[in-house]
Amino acid sequence: MVNKKEEMTFVVNPLAGTCRQDVMSLLEREMRNSGRAYQVVVTEYSGHAEMLARQAAEGGIGTVVAVGGDGTLNEVAKGVLGSESALGLLPCGSGNAFARYAGIPLVLSEACRSLLTAEFQRLDVGKLGEDIFLSSAGFGMDAEVCRRFNSREGGRRGMLPYVLLTVDTFRGYRPECVRVEMSEGQVYEGVPHIVTVANTSEYGNGATIAPGARADDGILDVCVIEDVTLLRGIWHSRRLFNGTIERMPGVKMYRSQQVKICSERPGWFQVDGDAREGGELAEVTVIPGGISVALPVGE
Question: Which residues are CB-neighbours of 6 under 8 A, at least 6 positions away?
Fold first, then answer.
């Protein structure tokens, strides 16, 4: 009889950045000698991964594995949240923010092998209304770039297209006044280009938005990047990749368990790289140790 707690369900997004390779053959090859029972399900539309993950969790599957990018991982996590199932990841997205933070190999075959010997750790989950996030939630130009990047028809993925789109968005973006209130009493009010609430340090593609953020400390890190010129933004963009973003002029860092972001009008926000339409008020909280995650040994 199969032990359900040892069984894995792989939720595959066939449209994710590098998932267009033959994932089925890879899984069969890597799992064949493991002795672990597993099944593979494939998403067919946006939101499908959450439903498939919830079905697997309700069926008592031990580990539900997202095979895709940060958006797919977000959906699978939402389906697993509140169950006894653990969350796993085989990363094949364009940014892979969570995988980079968690030390999960970016080569699928290596990630699969590490999954078979994984340790399980409870990590925090960010919550924004009905949405959750494992890496970050963002407001302002951050969300606008995500909206434009994901709405392109058949556009190239990867770092270069994202950077070019960011520069193009920067040229025409007009930031608005916001008020950010932290539950510990700190308040920011200004006209920032970006407000990011981070559960982990990683932003995707190797960029670090909140160097001190950890997903096991029960607190969120807030990075505010005030109105900057295009040239200054380009010059200091290197700080995203060397872990010194807090030294950029106009950057303010906070830490809080609950964050309220008040805007003059409804706008977009992003959770783990997927854009959503929001209102004038966003309330962000953290669920400490909200989900069990399969991590490589030693991470």
Answer: 36, 37, 62
